[in-house]
Design brief:
Distance between the termini: 29 Å
Strand content: 5-15%
Number of domains: 1
Strand order of the largest sheet: 1-2
Structural class: mainly alpha
Helix content: 40-55%
Number of strands: 2
Number of helices: 8
């Protein structure tokens, strides 16, 4: 996945195919579908939620940059008319962030966005201040994040910083990025 190619080896030859893709997936939180539901109790047997979640391997979960638990929205909230940010405004911010990244990686063939950064680029463009380093250390300890998840969280924080046109990653950007790693925490499904 990281190398964005697939190699198929057979007895007489090897073929390599490009495989740059964005994985978008969804799953139920447990077999009955109600684990962590705000109003309906989960009916799954003890330990079955953890077993269900373990069907998706840890290494695969590590490679999914953004993981969000989505809970049902009550009807009373659905029927409210709340003004939000317009799609056009969001589109403008995304285009601006992509332009920042295009400029950042202009001299690096094959790298177009923060997710594709090399280790060297990561060290150059993803510098954390002391407050953010401490936040990340605590997150690693408390949430049981892996070294791969560490890189992914900081790359997402870099993108959040780009969306807000910030030159540096701040603790606010990092805190938001950490909220997008809910499913690979040690406490999930227990």
């Amino acid at each position: 996945m990281e190398e964005r190619r697939i190699t198929v080896a057979r007895a007489k030859m090897t073929v390599e195919y490009p495989a740059s893709f964005m994985l978008v997936a969804a799953m139920n939180p447990c077999p009955c579908g109600y684990y962590n539901h705000p109003t309906v109790p989960c009916t799954c047997a003890a330990g079955s939620v953890k077993k269900y979640m373990n069907r998706v391997s840890g290494p695969l979960m590590d490679r999914i940059d953004i993981q969000c638990e989505v809970i049902p929205v009550p009807f009373s909230e659905l029927s409210k008319q709340k003004p939000g940010e317009s799609s056009a405004s969001i589109r403008e911010r995304v285009i601006a962030a992509r332009q920042i990244q295009a400029a950042r990686f202009a001299n690096t063939p094959g790298v177009h966005c923060n997710a594709q950064m090399s280790s060297k680029q990561f060290r150059e463009y993803c510098v954390l201040d002391a407050e953010s380093q401490e936040m990340m250390r605590l997150a690693m300890d408390r949430l049981g994040l892996s070294a791969r998840a560490y890189d992914r969280v900081i790359k997402v924080a870099r993108t959040i910083a780009d969306l807000s046109k910030s030159v540096n990653i701040t603790s606010e950007h990092l805190a938001e990025a950490l909220t997008y790693r809910s499913l690979d925490r040690d406490s999930w499904g227990r």
